[in-house]
Here is the input.
Amino acid sequence: MFKKVSLLSAVAASLAFVATAASASYPDKPISVVVPFAAGGPTDVVARNLSQALGTQLKGSLVVENVGGAGGTIGAGKVARAPGDGYTLLFHHIGMSTAPSLYRKLDFKPLEDFIPIGAVVDVPMTLIGKPQMTATNAKDLVAYVKANKDKINLANAGLGSASHLCGLLLQSAMKTDLTTVPFQGTGPAMTALLGGQVDLMCDQSTNTTGQIKGGKVKAYAVTSKGKLANFPELPPLNAELPGFEVGVWHILYAPKGTPAPIVTQLQTALQAAMKDPGFVTKMKELGAEIMPVDKQNSAAAKALLAAEIAKWSPIIQAAKAYAD
Here is the structure.
């Protein structure tokens, strides 16, 4: 028994030594940061700015890899299958919490196949309408939509997109079913809205700021708890729909099996990167809110993910918004 225990102890000590040695030299090659959406989108822009700041902290090179498709599930699945060595990371948004309910066939489990490093930013959303909409404020709009639900259509950027999710929550909060019109991305959806082919859209401020500031759309409300510095004239939608709140939060993940010392190293570097003046300035320009310090760690990020999975599951099930 003594020899067996001693052998097990020796193995454990050896593994611990290897992990510590690996973290001491980490990173010694480029780190791939997978963004499960197309280049140039809001998540991609945040990821590239974060990767630059994070690379400075890690004294290494981070390369963003865009692996789009199927609402972000293709890219996430790729990272789930990657070695847990710290050289393949995932930068994903709120879609990580809705994928288990949206997709009947999912080849990964968000809470089991990934280790959250920390929550990064939360991007508020805006409710906007086509230029021809007659409602002039949020209160009038809510009343108009409820009274004309059969005439109103709601655009989104496709299944699993932030605009799709916001639209589901909006219909749930109003207890009203609207005709939804999915597009292949935010660009086509915005074009249709500007042209008056669709009536409403709820999307990230990073996608709508230019159109709102340019007076090209009717802007009604923001989806944050309070007003936003970028849009002081817009009220929170929860003033008309109590309890309504949605933001597009983003988390940095590593695959399961990543050694604890490397996870800790990444977490420490992430927290420092989020204080980088260049990163902070860019996020303000985008209207993205950097997560509070108490969310910038693995445990808090995992708790956020779990809570959001529980929040969205009944909403998606009620809407029967599934994909094969």
Remarks:
- The chain has two domains: 26-122+248-319, 124-239.
- The two ends are 53 Å apart (CA to CA).
- Residues 124-239 form a domain with the D-Maltodextrin-Binding Protein; domain 2 fold (CATH 3.40.190.10).
